[in-house]
Specification:
With 315 residues, the chain is of the alpha/beta class. It has helices spanning 3-12, 36-48, 63-74, 89-93, 110-117, 131-135, 138-141, 184-187, 200-211, 217-237, 254-266, 273-281, 290-303; strands spanning 52-56, 78-82, 94-98, 104-108, 120-124, 146-148, 153-155, 162-167, 191-194. Strand 6 (146-148) and strand 7 (153-155) form a beta hairpin. The protein is globular, with a radius of gyration of 22 Å.
């Protein structure tokens, strides 16, 4: 579904779009395709009126983008912030910051701003927060009133206030470091969804559209199908999924797949643009490793194109 179709679907369910976007409405990505499964998940959450939703999944599977584009389709505002290990929960509510005159001025944090305005907030990389800091947000996650310590102001979240958080699994074996298991009381505040990668039927048209800027439709579709096949084979062999001793250290996200397709069109004169672009989109992260070799062997097996030995081309 495109944005117009998604909006019509959401409105049919009773989620009414605003007539115009605001300055806090995310930019609409015209190439974004709404997946049926995730559209159902976010619409169901919204209609329940539950205050907080957690989206968990491997990198580049669409956790953040579905929240952003849901709000973009409906012209809804969204306050966004990215968590980090040194972040204090208090900074999400309120803090004093330096002003040009050498003093300090009070500023509301993203959670307080969203609560006052009755809009959504998205906290990305949520499980990088210290568990104690995350637990201190419990009352806010259930839409309870809270006090701004610096000013004594009591904020009662307005209707429409919702908290979305997105995070990768806390799995060092899958290459995710610095993540934390949050307190069970904090977890209990969320409607939690595990986000899978899109299906081949959903990803092939996205890749085909990019390749169609260079290739005829039939050829673009054939290449897109092969590239998505490669992506799914890599995902199945990823150490975050597979328990095999030879599991791959890398997986291929939808984001990587798109970068691979775009690189293919730009470096079309490479001895093998599939391998050349894939190195830069993914496998150079593990340069010289068995994982890199294995992924390129998957490409050769699926497409028949072996890794070239000629010098790199210019764009």
């Amino acid at each position: 579904m495109n944005h117009q179709q998604a909006r019509a679907r959401f409105e049919k369910l009773g989620i009414v779009a605003l007539p115009q976007p605001s300055e806090k409405t995310p930019a609409l990505n015209p190439d974004y395709v709404f997946r049926d499964d995730m559209s159902n998940e976010i619409a169901g959450f919204w209609l329940m009126g539950t205050p907080a939703m957690k989206l968990v999944g491997h990198k580049g599977c669409g956790k953040t983008s579905v929240v952003e584009q849901f709000h973009a389709a409906l012209n809804y505002p969204l306050v966004k912030v990215t968590a980090h290990p040194r972040m204090e929960a208090a900074s999400l509510l309120s803090q004093f910051v330096p002003d040009p005159k050498g003093g300090f001025v009070h500023r509301y944090g993203p959670l307080a701003l969203a609560a006052k305005a009755g809009c959504s907030v998205l906290i990305d990389e949520y499980n990088l927060l210290d568990p104690g800091e995350a637990a201190s947000l419990n009352i806010i996650l259930e839409r309870g009133m809270f006090e701004i310590v610096e000013t004594g102001e009591v904020i009662r979240p307005s209707d429409g206030f919702r908290v979305f958080v997105a995070c990768n699994p806390n799995d060092k074996a899958a290459g995710y470091f610095g993540r934390n298991d949050q307190d069970s009381s904090n977890d209990d505040r969320f409607w939690t969804v595990f986000v899978e990668y899109p299906t081949a039927a959903e990803e092939v048209p996205v890749v085909q559209k990019i390749l169609s800027t260079l290739l005829d439709d039939a050829t673009a579709k054939a290449y897109a199908e092969n590239m998505v096949t490669v992506a799914n084979r890599v995902r199945k062999q990823y150490m975050g999924v597979s328990q095999d001793a030879s599991a791959l250290e890398l997986t291929m996200s939808t984001r990587t797949l798109i970068n691979w397709a775009q690189g293919f069109t730009i470096f079309a004169d490479a001895p093998s643009p599939l391998h050349y672009a894939l190195e830069r989109a993914l496998t150079n992260q593990k340069h010289g490793s068995a994982t890199k070799v294995a992924i390129h062997e998957i490409v050769a097996d699926v497409t028949g194109e072996t890794v070239p030995t000629k010098p790199d081309p210019k764009p």
